[in-house]
């Protein structure tokens, strides 16, 4: 496996692409290109969670896909543990919208650059995001062929096209987020996330509309797999159901799973990504990865002979 940390912008240490590129073997694909999954961890736009990074990448690698973790622009500039809830902080233009989703576009250009060396099939790249990373991936899913991406990089839309999108407890409708009935602790986290993304805790209607992917779904949005839990109080389940409805109205293939129990931020929902056993280990929700694997195989199945040759 080729594991490498690539810095996507000169002079910045916080925006990185970490590779988990599988070695070729004559016993397996023997020189054929593999699909890939680009992972965007969550972290309230303040940091990128380790729990939703390498453990997830290794699961996708175990399925036979090349995996990549994108640590996109965040308010904390990649500083571990930085989460200034309740503190007075200043606006950071480098981490605000549309920077996170543009980082996904920059990562796609990097993948194109190495596609032949890594035996990476650029026609089969899925993006996978969790929470704030789910918002980043959902935004990219609806803006990948728009001037916010294509004009910024002066590259054709084909360079940025995702083949599929996997969204785990994502933020997709900022109107729901703003209207949510949150505990004081959750409200503080939500306010900080909104400030980190938009530079204000009281965004305008136009800002809310622009960063609500549910309002921008078209036939160009990639097939999407969504999952969340009905007990998630930080990112209400309506973010998932509203996105599913928008996809259905646009005729975009999708699959959605809403598990009855489970707090926000479960990641793999097993001990590999848990901070405790009571809340973060959830056997039902952990099934999402197997379901996603089956869903991906419908699109990314390898070109293998039916029998031993």
Question: What would you say about this model in short?
Answer:
With 309 residues, this protein is an alpha/beta fold. The chain is built from ten helices and eight strands.
Folded structure, characterized:
This protein has an eight-stranded mixed beta sheet, with helices on both faces. With 309 residues, the chain is α/β, with parallel strands linked by helices. The chain contains ten helices and eight strands. It has one domain (2-300): Alpha/Beta hydrolase fold, catalytic domain (Rossmann fold). 34% of the residues lie in helices and 17% in strands. Helix 2 crosses helix 3 (132-143) and helix 2 crosses helix 4 (147-153). The chain is globular and about 65 Å long. It has helices at 54-62, 99-118, 132-143, 147-153, 174-179, 184-198, 205-210, 238-250, 277-280, 288-300, and strands spanning 2-7, 16-21, 34-40, 66-71, 120-130, 164-168, 224-229, 254-259. The model has no long low-confidence stretch (mean pLDDT 95).
Order of helices and strands: EEEHEHEHHEHHHEHEHH
Distance between the termini: 27 Å
Helix content range: 25-40%
Shape: globular
Biggest sheet details: 8 strands, mixed
**Quick check: average pLDDT?**
95
The count of β-strands is 8
CATH superfamily: Alpha/Beta hydrolase fold, catalytic domain
> What percentage of amino acids are in beta strands?
15-25%
Unreliable stretches covering 5 or more consecutive residues = none
Gyration radius, in Å: 18 Å
Helix-strand category: alpha/beta
CATH overall fold name: Rossmann fold
């Amino acid at each position: 496996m080729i594991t490498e940390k690539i810095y996507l912008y000169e002079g910045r240490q916080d925006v990185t692409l970490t590779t988990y590129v599988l070695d070729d073997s004559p016993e397996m694909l023997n020189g054929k290109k593999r699909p890939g999954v680009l992972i965007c961890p969550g972290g309230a736009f303040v940091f990128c969670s380790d729990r939703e990074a390498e453990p997830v990448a290794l699961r996708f690698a175990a399925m036979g896909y090349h995996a990549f973790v994108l640590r996109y622009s965040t308010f904390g500039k990649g500083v571990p543990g930085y989460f200034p809830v309740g503190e007075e902080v200043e606006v950071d233009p480098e981490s605000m919208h549309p920077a996170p989703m543009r980082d996904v576009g920059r990562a796609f250009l990097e993948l194109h650059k190495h596609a032949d060396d890594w035996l990476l099939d650029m026609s089969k790249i899925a993006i996978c995001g969790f929470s704030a990373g789910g918002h980043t991936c959902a935004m990219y899913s609806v803006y990948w062929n728009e001037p916010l991406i294509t004009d910024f990089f002066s590259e054709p839309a084909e360079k940025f096209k995702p083949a599929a999108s996997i969204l785990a407890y994502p933020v997709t409708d900022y109107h729901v987020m703003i209207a949510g009935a949150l505990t004081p602790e959750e409200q503080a986290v939500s306010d900080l996330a909104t400030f980190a993304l938009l530079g204000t805790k009281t965004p305008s209607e136009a800002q809310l509309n622009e960063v609500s992917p549910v309002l921008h779904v078209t036939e160009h949005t990639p097939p999407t797999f969504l999952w969340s839990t009905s007990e998630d109080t930080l990112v209400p389940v309506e973010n998932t159901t509203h996105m599913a409805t928008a996809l259905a109205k646009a005729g975009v293939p999708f699959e959605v799973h809403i598990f009855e129990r489970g707090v926000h931020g479960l990641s793999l929902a097993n001990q590999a990504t848990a901070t405790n056993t009571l809340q973060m280990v959830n056997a039902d929700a952990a099934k999402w990865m197997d379901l996603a694997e089956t869903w991906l195989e419908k699109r990314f199945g390898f070109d293998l002979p039916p029998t031993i040759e």
